[in-house]
Amino acid sequence: MAVYTEVSDEALDAFLDDYDIGELVAFRGIAEGVENSNFSLRTTRGDYILTLYEKRVDPAELPWFLGLMEHLATHGLTCPLPVHGRDGQALRQLCGRHAAITTFLPGVWPRHVRLAHCGPVGEALARLHLAGAGYAPTRRNALGPQGWSPLLERSLPGADEVQPGLGTELRQALDGILAQWPQNLPVGHIHADLFPDNVFFLDQRLSGLIDFYFAATDILAYDLAVCLNAWCFEPDLSFNVTKARAMGHAYAAVRELSAAERAALPVLCQGAAIRFALTRLYDWINTPPGALVTRKDPVEYIRRLRFHLAARDEHAYGL
Amino acid sequence: MAVYTEVSDEALDAFLDDYDIGELVAFRGIAEGVENSNFSLRTTRGDYILTLYEKRVDPAELPWFLGLMEHLATHGLTCPLPVHGRDGQALRQLCGRHAAITTFLPGVWPRHVRLAHCGPVGEALARLHLAGAGYAPTRRNALGPQGWSPLLERSLPGADEVQPGLGTELRQALDGILAQWPQNLPVGHIHADLFPDNVFFLDQRLSGLIDFYFAATDILAYDLAVCLNAWCFEPDLSFNVTKARAMGHAYAAVRELSAAERAALPVLCQGAAIRFALTRLYDWINTPPGALVTRKDPVEYIRRLRFHLAARDEHAYGL
């Protein structure tokens, strides 16, 4: 749930004057997303999303994110298109925050993941990877493998309070993952956070992808590993290989997966699981009890990690 | 910020099958309102609000609220109109909660109250009072004068932790207010919670009133007293009599205020201030620190109360 910054009507009116998108009709905070403040904005011209970037986003990186979204949206992917102001700028200032308006995407994100969702997600992810190829600027993945050891170090003092033995388990797993991390797989722009709440469906069809603020330039197959973690475990944390097969096959039908990429799936999935386990653990330990942010349980991702550590090869993922 | 209940896509689809309002296009949680879960719902037919009633609302009272809204909306007031299902029912069940769909109102609530807002609010309040006259069922105001002493008793043990001497101050003030409380003023249906976030404006004009879930049958002029408290104090808690005059005159131009109603304004304003001071105090003391609800500072209303206790007569309010 996220509206961290209150936007006054005067400030909003002045802000909209810098755009050629018609007159204000409605403006409501959206109770979704955890990093930024999002508002549903309607004008006489149509529907938009206004995002105010809060402090966890580095302002220096915003042009890269907005540029990627614009590139993807104009290269066949359905994702929010940044709207330029009268001066040509998409990134502006509002209420002391960096802010941008993007187009509104219809659709509903799936609260319960069904098998029928997983193929379309794999296909859309592959299309994103292909469409991103023409976007020249790169962004280092701050939450990629180089970031995991520092994250673990900062969480170790509190880890065993979350679960006894957790610190040792994570340290051992991370050492193994980093030792085996693949070095020569194809790299490109990845979403890096394509969870169900970032994928809209309409009439059983995927209608758009949102929230590119973790996107980065990294191993493409790692993005598939993130999705296998996010979409293919059941609520009881059992792994649904049928969902994984549907996702992987749909991905590979659009962008072929090499033998090396397939073989690396277990360690890539381990990496994706430990990445979310570590950020959740860090937030769990460092979120004050009174904060307005719901903390997510890191243990869910530690259980996923254990599954992937036991996976022998790509067959564990139906590939 | 309020989405307490997660609605699955399957449950939503099944729920919408009971309505003749077209096919689902978009569905987002709204980060506004503190009592219920609200969602912005778009279908191929138009825009709606879906509300899930959470536990603070007594289900037995929901038909009264929805009936009042329907009566007001069909008698010239711009407020959400409950949408009936195919079976004629507006009140239904979704995800174990009572739920209703209402029409969407365009507009933006004013984050900064300006003088230009106050006349339209007074006028709309008077129109609400006149339009409500034909709605026969009544609802006792649970947060009216009879409710204030029990609320104070339950808050007294923690009151002095909020501010030393607060318990005694509130007890003395409440005794005085109840002793002077007017008995023979005109009664009708009141909104009882017409704060800025419940009033939408569009192009400088009032475009609608929302959130009738504190509405009740009580002294009409008390509703004006609530609005004087909610709209006419500046952020530094100084009282802006120009705003009050604009509001009161606009009200009286639509529904005449009798001499008795005008004379009672100081005590009615004291009552309105202590009502919000007491509920905020109660919530302040009883909200666990980890709760996802922002606690509102009761002291703001105690300072308003002190202003009203010093008011000699209606001239203090520009009337």
From TrEMBL, chains A, B:
Pathway annotation: Amino-acid biosynthesis; L-threonine biosynthesis; L-threonine from L-aspartate: step 4/5
Top-rank taxon, per record: Bacteria
Matches recorded under InterPro entries: Aminoglycoside_PTrfase, Homoserine_kinase_II, Kinase-like_dom_sf, Pseudomonas-type_ThrB
UniProt keywords, alphabetically: Amino-acid biosynthesis, ATP-binding, Kinase, Nucleotide-binding, Threonine biosynthesis, Transferase
Domain Aminoglycoside phosphotransferase intervals: 27-257
Pfam annotation, one family: APH
Reactions this protein catalyses: L-homoserine + ATP = O-phospho-L-homoserine + ADP + H(+)
EC number: 2.7.1.39
Biological process terms in GO annotation: threonine biosynthetic process
Record Gene3D superfamilies: 3.90.1200.10, Phosphorylase Kinase, domain 1
GO molecular function, one term: ATP binding
Family named by the database record: Belongs to the pseudomonas-type ThrB family.
PANTHER family given in the database record: AMINOGLYCOSIDE PHOSPHOTRANSFERASE DOMAIN-CONTAINING PROTEIN, AMINOGLYCOSIDE PHOSPHOTRANSFERASE DOMAIN-CONTAINING PROTEIN-RELATED
Protein name: Homoserine kinase
